[in-house]
User: Fold these one by one.
Assistant:
Number 1:
Amino acid sequence: MKVQITNGMFMALLINMVYAKAIGLTQGSMAREVGNDIWISTIFSTFQGILMIYLLVLIIRRLPNHDVFQHSEILAGKIFGKMVCLLVFIFFLGAFGTIMATFVYHIKDFFLPDAPILLVVVVPFILGVYAIHYGIEVIARMALVGVFSILSLNLLILLGSLSELDIRELLPVFEFGVGRTIWASRHHNTDWAMAFMMAAIILPIVKQQEKWGRAGVAGIVYGGLFIVLWPILEVGVLSAEVTAQYIVSCMQMARSAEIGYFIHRYEMIMIAFFAISILTQVMMTFLCASISIQRLFSLKDYRPVIIPVCLVLTGYSYWFVFDHQRAIKIIETYWVALSMGIAIGLLLLLYILGFIFKKKVKANNKKHPSFR
Amino acid sequence: MYPKFLLLACIFSFMMTGCVGKVEIDDLALVMAVGLDKGENGAIKVTTQIVRPADARGQTGAPAGQTGDPIWSATAEGDTIFEAIRNLATFSSRRVFWAHNYAIVINEDLAREGIADIIDFFSRNQQLRMRTWVLVTPDSASEVVSTLTGLEVIPGEAVDKLFRYTTISAKSPSTQMLDLQSAYLSDTSQPVLARVQLIKRGVSNKKPGQAGAYEQVDLAGAGVFRKDKLVGILKPEEVRGLLPFIEHVESGVVVLSCPGDAEKKMSIEIKNQSFHVEPSIRDGTPAFATSLVVYGSVVEAGCPFTLSDKKDVKKIEKEMEEKLKEEIELVVKKAQEEYKSDFLELGKVFQNRYPSESREIGNWEDVFPSTLVEVNANVTINDSSILYKPTKSGG
């Protein structure tokens, strides 16, 4: 029987897929461009995320039993389908670099400065490989726990920082203009791109396709709400200038948090909550990259390619995180262009192709009726 | 079954390397406070107050470790802070650990030359908390750090509590690394740090006659910076005029003359205070109207006084308004004319309200000294503690 996940699990995966990097590295990147308007950029980006997930649902609904690779093949032929597989693999390869930068710089820079990078890179490799071997259902269940972890983490940081929050720091709004604030949201868009690229692969296995749109939009809205708390606190507590100084600005928040006079230095607890979310990101990236290679070589199962694919991703991430400056430069420049190009470009292309080849869609739906 | 078990054993043995980089707690030298002074030949002198766990246990710090001293102070010099700390390792038997540091004390001579390297080092260090207190001192920072002060066993903790619990004195601002870093990085605001000094205030219990026998750390105003250099000092009595601009003031005491007898004094405790700065543009120049609203309580009267005497109440309200207004005006004058440093965060207030205009007016450092600042104070005395009738002789 085909594996299926519930709409709740799908929402949880969307939230986890975007959260860790969005609060970890993205806010610093945006603060370097638009100062204290990062929270507005985050909101703008969430709206763009909603639009994209809605577009994705429209696309996948045309052929509800087929993922993005199969769509491409049905609409524009085998070669185009293979090209899409390769593009999606490149996307997740790039995404994994940014995810591991978030993970490694959290763990190594703040908790285990003496640990070798290799160790911090290999541990998620082992966990990721182990998890995706058992399939998406396991990861989706973990993502549900991840949502509670995110809630707990948000609550802890809120309690520990509220006393230092100076709401005046959020002013003035649009200091650098509306256009620049929207433009800065591209950094956060790359996080949402990971979520909807994942959705492009897993949506056909989500139950009750009539609820896909609502679940997708709800996942993005809740994810956006969980994330936007961080830039508000970072600007209000640390100031935009301090947020911009750091690679991992959220850890700067975490190590300044205190609940009353007696509960402080609790960032170890916070990082434990954070870890579930980022490990879900790691696992889903491994899974999506493995599926894209499976489709590229027309294999029946993705399991045979898990180890080689994950080794490639891990090897790249080791190179990626080795130099902090290089990693941040790639995240803020090349990665934005690559991820936006692939994610938005691919979705728009499929949407347009769907219009052009309506007959093919109808013929395929007749041949393989959906479970609607 | 066997190969699976072997594979799992291999994986788990690899994952159990969580011990990489571990340091046992008894291998750590827990720094409670750090002092920074000018060293010889342009070097920097770092003094660390390190807790002796064996002698600092319990409520009293009973000498279980046989030495009786709850702290061990060690000093080392280097061309940079990091080198000086590494030089500490040449004689410290334990690894210096900053995560529990309560205070960074900077000598004023060093602060006058610039503290950019200090801000950078302590904000770059992943162990240090951003809520660590940062202070300047006219005394040797080394001495301040190695002085046993306050009621706590660990002097660093005493300094911590000095700032946490004595906001009522309003003699120094409570400045943390977070505030220093954000003011230093700001385009408009300048840092201001709490100032402490050693004063012979402690009274020996063994020889009570020797009042002021040993030194204690005393709140002594604030150090004003322009960029990273200390440019001036605010006296403790001037700090009350500064505090409303930079932090929420919980309390404070104002001593006034009695309404009918200038020789006699009465104390008004500030119970509730709100402060608002309204920026505006007048003739193309930034201007500010500040308003201070204070609710006070009569906590001591050297003359018969009751709140039912409305005429007297009005008089002391007026006197208090004048006094508070003068204090704020004095600090504003010092900031604008003497130090030319916007440690009052007025630039930030203006920038928040008028972002495009603030870009047009040019460098805030040049504009700030000529801005107009109006000060208004409104005092209401509505409480006389638990007394209703005036305290006077029945005879």
Note: Chain A has a mean pLDDT of 89.
Number 2:
Amino acid sequence: MDKLLALSDELAAAVERAGRAVVAVHGRPRVPSTGVHWHSGLIVTANHTVQAEDDVTVTRPDGVSTPATVVGRDSTLDVAVLRVDAAGIPVADAGDSDAVRVGHMVLAVGAGPRASWGVVSAIDAGPGRIPGTDFFTLDLTLYPGFSGGPLVDARGSVVGLNTSGASRYLQLAIPAKAVSRVVHDVVSHGRIPQGYLGVSTQPVRIPDALRERLGRARRAAVIVVDVEAGSPAAAGLLIGDVILSLEGEPVTDPFDLRALLRSRPIGQRVRASVVRAGQLVDVELTIGERPPRGR
Amino acid sequence: MDLSALAQALRRITVELRGAAGVVGSGVVWAPEWIVTNAHVVRHPRVALRLADGRQRDAVVAARDTTADLAALHVPDLDGAPPTMAGVEPLRVGSLIVALGHPFGVSGALTAGVVHAIGPITPNGRPWIQADLRLAPGNSGGPLADSRGHLLGLNTMIAGGLALAIPVSVVHWFMRGVAGHPA
């Protein structure tokens, strides 16, 4: 058979195969996003597309709408997990995302199904800089509504979850392995436990004079702009504190802080190195679990 | 067939439409003496064109339908085999497709992509072949073909990054109504 025709048929078959486990997710105004039936009764989608906490619905591949409950969010990875009555919808065939290489041909599938075609252009830590999780940077177009949909290899196996919300400039996919870890958390704990301090921070530059006095090499740190009442941070941090490091690991922007929290167990005590009123102080904090939204 | 053979086959049925400022669009040889293109590409009663072999011709705009965005051009001494039309089997989302045209005046450029979806882009709108394919000004009126080189439609516009093509069945229906055109 003609090679090009064979490739064309394989790509179309890959879309059809993946499309059977794909739903439309109505969790924001206007354009619905896409979701994947990842585990029996659990749909994963891009967290940034699920703005509502209640009244989320899902349109099944057969066109029938069904209510969905948000059971977990991982805002760092940009994954949300929804529980639905998924009877009759096959579970997506998750592929080996570790086998994906730069240059591999991939398809992004949106609810419909709709398709977009391209290659994996990079595999790296991405904007979230999450320890142990590399993102796929995609050379393809994620059309409106494609976030939360599957990234599919030429066989039709799902190797990632697409999102245009994790970076302002890049089209990314979260590897299937990382998505499965999140889904596993929901299956075994009923939720996605996320490390949490309860601070909002902004990047800040440390003046040279202060750096010299403190004997610090790094110019960048983060300044505390908000401390949530009753949070782990409230036990030790004040608005205006400049956090230089956490357990000796430098914190140069808010992403660093999130990444450091992610790599440590909930309940662990950590030491933050802080500049307060021009003086270097150590603050002991206990990593808590992020409370559910809206409470 | 490989992609370069596909490009060659499509170049034989694609013409370059020229205005005072250079290339204005593309057209498809539909039948001996007849070329079809988009109405928005030809805004005057006559248009100059360049065939795939480099010959220049003057065409008369024999019919123009701005709603359908289609125009039929008559070139009395034009020979050349018409394209093979895609069959009746439904187009599959994800299947490979190619466009040929003259984006930004680049002659005979091939673009490859996949079928994104088929149908209207607005409720109750006209049907389109929606392609995940990068088009540019100069592609308008050129062929969209499948991996066999069979004609699927006429590349017409770009909306939200998607290439929209008029399905060949609609083009067929338009050309049948053109006076003097062999139905």
Note: Chain A has a mean pLDDT of 91.
